[in-house]
Amino acid sequence: MTGAEPPSGLRRARRFLGRRVRALRRSLSGPPAEEALIAERLPLPRHLIALDSEEGARLLAEAGAEADYHQLLGHYVPQRNPRFCGPATLAILLNALWEDEASGAGRGLRRPYDQDSVFVRRTEAVKPREEVVRGGMGLPILAGYLTAHGVRSELRFASEIGLGAFRERVVPLLVDRETFVAVNYHRPGLGQEGTGHISPLAAWHAASDRFLVLDVSRHRYPSVWVAAAALFSAMNTVAGTHTRGFVTARLGP
Q1: Which of 49, 98, 150, 206 is found 20 to 30 A from 56 (Cα to Cα)?
Q2: Whole-model pTM?
Q3: Distance (Å) of CA 28 to CA 36, 57, 81, 117, 176
């Protein structure tokens, strides 16, 4: 009969084919493969040691299996645009913090955070999503977002402490499965291109006094081992009315 609806089976087949065609189009126009991303990376200054190098792997092995790296890696996500180093870092930290609750024990099932779901009603009062999209987030906003998600955070500006106090405070936390650290530093201070950047801190190698920065901008730079003094110097740079620094994050007291 002219104008009649097609049978339900035919409608389902058409929808199925439509989904397959859309998926194929996305695959053809999707993001580049990992090899292409690595090929586009910027040159790494010689004083930084790439984690994916032989030397970088050796330092990680010597840092030990207790290092936060092994827990953070399972939740690593690269930032999806130039302004989202903060949201990407937040997603990594929140997922790592809630890892033990992923099975539903005690708190019920929890969906993994991503760079969209870190924005909730409570974070709008800290800094609206649209402002983060346009201008990114600094260290105080990162700490505020953690608090808005019910995380206990500690914010320290580099100007308030010295290198020794920074090392003393942070090193024990990098082998503490319940506490994680994010650093805010000035890329040019490490000889890299760019401006301010936020990423998780993942390990410390005692013999060389180097920290491992789990860089969320992996299409530009790999995760790197950086000398403690160089990292602290890059943190002790002015951003607005204060210097950069670090934030710790943990659940509970």
Answers
A1: 98
A2: 0.82
A3: 15, 34, 20, 27, 42
Q: Residue 149 above 60 pLDDT?
A: yes
Mean pLDDT of 71-98: 96
pLDDT category at 104 given cuts 50, 70, 90 is very low
pLDDT of residue 40: 76
Domains of the chain: 48-250 (3.90.70.30)
DSSP string, 172-217: GGGG-TTEEEEEEEEGGGGT-SSSEEEEEEEEEETTTTEEEE--S-
Element (H, E) at 225: strand 224-227
β-strands 224-227, 210-213 pairing: antiparallel
Question: Would you tell me how many other CB atoms lie within 10 Å of the CB of residue 97?
Answer: 25
Two tokens, residue 228: 């403690």
Coil vs helix vs strand at 238: strand
Q: How many CB atoms lie within 10 A of CB 142?
A: 26
> 3-state DSSP call for residue 36?
helix
Q: How far is CA 16 from CA 13, 19, 20, 222, in A?
A: 5, 5, 6, 40
Model pLDDT for residues 2-50, shown as the tens digit of each residue: 445 555 556 555 554 554 444 434 333 344 444 445 557 899 999 999 9
Q: Is it the case that residue 213 has pLDDT exceeding 80?
A: yes
Location of structure tokens 């609206």: 128
Res 33: pLDDT: 44
CB-hemisphere CA count at 13 Å for 215?
25
Q: Which residues fall within 8 angstroms of residue 93, CB to CB, at 6 or more apart? A: 72, 146, 151, 180, 182, 200, 249
**Structure tokens belonging to residue 42:** 């910027």
